[in-house]
Amino acid sequence: MARIEVGWRSIAVVAIAATCACGDDGGDGGVDAARADAAIVDAPTDAAGDDAAAIDAPVDGPGVDAAPADAEPPLPVRLRIVAANLTSGSGQAYEAPGIRILDGLDPDVALVQEFNAGSNTAADLRGFVDQAFGPGFGFARENGVQLPNGVVSRYPIRGSGTWDDPQVSNRGFTWARIDVPGPRDLWAVSIHLLTSSATNRDAEAQALAAYVAANVPPGDLLVIGGDLNTAARTEAAITTLGGVVDTAGPHPRDQAGNDFTNAGRTKPYDWVMPDADLAPYVVTVDIGAASFADGLVFDTRVFTPLDDVAPALVTDSAAPSMQHMAVVKDFVITE
Description:
alpha+beta; disordered N terminus; globular; 335 residues; Deoxyribonuclease I, Chain A
């Protein structure tokens, strides 16, 4: 366990396993080194196993809040991954509508954008995760930026960090290496590309692809997802990311057949993209009696019956300044 100094406090930083091609920050991969600010440890007070090593986080919130190290369930295991830019209101923060949606969808791993809650104190962030996911979940989150990305996980987070986005300074590409059931780890990368232009989004995608090539060990599982702000599925950024993850259709849809995910349901902004190792495990998303062979775009105004995704309310997806719709893909890990 390495240590860094942040302000007045020494904070423990989780080191990535030696199988990572370039150490824990990607500094040898020909791209800018990753920031360490998403690797601060602050374990939940009720977590098993790692409680004694927990370090209090600075007031702007923990980078990593480790999930309990419970016994690993036997295979096969269903894994639900959700992309979530579900902030609402005037502060680009998670409020009751987004919290209810995440609670109802019950993800195992969530790729979260605009990861703000309350005043972003450690207690506020922990409270958001407890409400939306459960007290047993851990999370990795950027610190010190306006629109932090993050990853929330039911399973233990073994390492995390943020790769710098060369096009923007108020967020990066936040990754977490997760000990999912089975012999391989899952690398989950939460991203939020720019709205400014398709050219800038492709530059971001090129940088991200380079980070992945330099840092993610061959054979490990990988998912990249979040808010790509893509106006079309044919954008250059999608072609670029297609070199490291599966971007091909068919794509998730709602019960009305609409695959667009922005607030107005006119553009394909949000994605969950597995790599070639994870993609074979894709299965139908089943919620209650409803089945979605290609994954689900979840809109509370469309989904029925809402009792199957309680406590979500029909008005949640139309909440004031609600960003986007959640995107859901399910996987069954068999080996």
